[in-house]
Design brief:
The complex is a heterodimer of chains A (about 375) and B (about 210). Chain A is an alpha/beta fold and about 375 residues long. Chain A contains 13 helices and 13 strands. In chain A, about 45% of the residues lie in helices and about 15% in strands. In chain B, helix 2 (about 50-65) packs across helix 4. The chains are: A alpha/beta (about 375), B alpha/beta (about 210).
């Protein structure tokens, strides 16, 4: 099972100081978060894509390419790549290039985007959201699988004799997760192609998550990609931790109360009860996350949102340290318990698989304590 | 008729005070619809939703983007109703903000053809046409089947004469209730579509 971090990339003032980071600071912070994600032993970093303030990540492959050069194992992903307003030809080219530069450590999550004006800014119409997602993805899918493409559709200029370069690394297209919160049409699309399905899982009711993932699993089997319990499912979730849950609540409450995404509506307590937001001790985060399996079945990828609500970067990095030391090792162990052997891992590029196997073999030969001491800060630093 | 098969009549009241004249009107309407249905051999299940109880959750939903379990249950009840009575006080020439907050969240697809009786209360009869220029278009947008008679109760109507006369409040309540019960009897049970249980196949989605 993969564990990782996803970042929206918003510039949000710290409500306790009123100070907003500059764009430069926020971009540097996102890079620092990605590097720490690898250092603490997590598997995936995914960046959002936005084309309006207060968000900085308009150019995901530029950022991910830089992170690729500074990491060894980390899988680079998106949350989400806008399949509606990006030219699918450019997505095919950009992510294939990133795949080569990152040695195959790339997948991407596709979404439609819900900011109305972004569509006309890119020459599209939000009312065509689903048809755009279908047509653009159908083209993207072919561009990565056919060397020469003749194509004509409704939303972009036709292609005759077009070859998207570079070709996918080793002829293996990047794995695609289709992301959707409440659109059965997208679950159906993911099932049709045998892609992964990611639910951001930030807003419940949990019943909605259960319904749409169940639909995806059932239709994945219907389209002949394998049994429903072998479909590839990812979930999000958001957390804030301190060793004592009261400390976590006390520290996070002003952020919750005043952040644009949270404040003014339900109380922190109501929000925690009605959504997966967990503010508390590492054990509470572990318990909450393990319970996701009861909603969607055994799944493949868990991403956490930790840089929310204007939290300062030092605090976010502490959160990552706690995830890496206190939470994810337990989750890996516990999720493995009673996991049926036929439940697959999320597909990663063969080259990544081979490299990981080599690393694991190396680690098995090396003294036990060495890798953690080098890559993660000492436990004592967590209390700072 | 068994309880399981009993058609549901849902009453949404946006009255604010306790007791409110809006709830009073809502109760008179639901009692009259109940009576007409029973005369036709139908025993409805009646559920009353006081929007005052949902007020905070409605604002929370607006800001947080998801409904509380209680609000979700109210929305599900309205969506699954075989007949709906919607009653609001008239504020500033239209339905109240609270009433609109709730119906902003109703899924339009599940509303098509649903028999609806609209009613309102106000201080004077001068606002009665708000039913026709504000309330009826709202439900027309939702593709509901709004019955012809809308019921407006001004303060004076509660003490006015004409109890037996056709033009009085009691007569209008009875006429509107008869229309709603007839519409419910003709239409039969609402069968809300579940897009998660019955997905549209992908090749069909591609062609649409």
């Amino acid at each position: 099972m993969q564990f990782g971090i996803f970042s929206v990339g918003d510039v949000t003032p710290d409500p306790t100081t009123g100070r907003a980071p500059s764009e430069a600071e926020r971009i540097a912070a996102m890079v620092a978060i990605a590097l720490r994600t690898e250092a603490v032993g997590l598997d995936v970093f995914a960046t959002g894509e936005h084309h309006n303030p207060p968000f900085v990540p308009s150019s995901p492959t530029t950022m991910l390419g830089y992170i690729a050069a500074r990491t060894e194992r980390l899988i680079l992903s998106t949350a989400t790549t806008l399949i509606t307003t990006n030219d699918p030809v450019k997505i095919a080219e950009d992510y294939a290039m990133l795949q080569h530069l990152a040695g195959g450590r790339v997948d991407l999550m596709l979404g439609r985007g819900n900011m109305g004006p972004v569509y006309p800014w890119f020459g599209q119409d939000i009312r065509n959201g689903i048809p755009l997602a279908y047509e653009n993805y159908a083209l993207l899918h072919r561009l990565w699988r056919e060397d020469v493409v003749d194509w004509e559709g409704k939303f972009r200029t036709p292609l005759v004799g077009f070859t998207s370069t570079p070709r996918p690394l080793d002829g293996v297209p990047p794995f695609v997760w289709q992301g959707s919160i409440r659109s059965p049409e997208i679950a159906e699309q993911a099932a049709f192609y045998g892609d992964g399905f990611f639910h951001n899982n930030i807003f419940w009711p949990a019943e909605h998550v259960r319904q749409i993932v169940a639909l995806y699993r059932r239709r994945f089997e219907h389209y002949g990609h394998g049994p429903a319990d072998q479909a590839i499912v990812g979930l999000g979730g958001q957390t804030f931790m301190r060793r004592n849950s009261q400390d976590a609540v006390r520290e996070f409450r002003p952020y919750f109360d005043h952040a644009p995404v949270y404040g003014g509506g339900p109380s922190l307590e109501e929000y925690m009860e009605q959504t997966p937001l967990t503010v508390g001790s590492p054990q509470q985060v572990i318990d909450r996350t393990l319970a996701f399996r009861e909603i969607v079945g055994d799944y493949q990828r868990q991403l956490f949102l930790v840089d929310h609500a204007g939290l300062p970067i030092d605090t976010v990095l502490e959160q990552l340290d706690m995830l890496g030391q206190l939470v994810v090792p337990v989750l890996r162990r516990e999720f493995a318990v009673n996991r049926p052997p036929n439940v697959p891992e999320a597909p990663v590029h063969p080259r990544v698989l081979a490299a990981q196997a080599a690393l694991a073999a190396e680690a098995a030969q090396a003294p036990q304590s060495a890798p953690t001491a080098e890559t993660a800060p000492a436990a004592a630093e967590l209390d700072a | 008729m068994s309880t399981a098969a009993a058609p549901s009549l849902v009453v949404v009241s946006a009255g604010l005070s306790q007791p409110s004249s809006t709830r009073l009107l809502a109760d008179r309407l639901s009692a009259a619809v109940d009576r007409h249905l029973r005369e036709a051999g139908i025993e409805p299940r009646i559920e009353v939703i006081e929007l005052r109880d949902q007020a905070k959750d409605l604002v929370n939903n607006l800001l947080a983007g998801f409904p509380s379990p209680g609000l979700q249950a109210a929305l599900d009840a309205v969506l699954g109703a075989d007949g709906l009575i919607a009653v609001t006080p008239i504020f500033s020439a239209s339905y109240s903000g609270l009433f609109k907050l709730f119906f902003d969240l109703v899924e339009r697809d599940g509303f098509a053809g649903k028999p609806v009786l609209i009613a309102a209360t106000g201080g004077t009869a001068r606002h009665s046409l708000a039913l026709e220029h504000a309330m009826r278009p709202l439900f027309a947008y939702l593709n509901a089947a709004v019955v012809a008679t809308a019921v407006y109760a001004a303060t004076e109507d509660w003490g006015g004469g004409g109890v037996a006369a056709d033009g009085g409040l009691v007569g209008r309540i009875d006429r509107a209730a008869l229309e709603l019960s007839a519409a419910m009897a003709v239409r039969g049970p609402a069968a809300p579509k579940d897009p998660f249980a019955d997905p549209v196949p992908f090749d069909q989605l591609l062609r649409s």
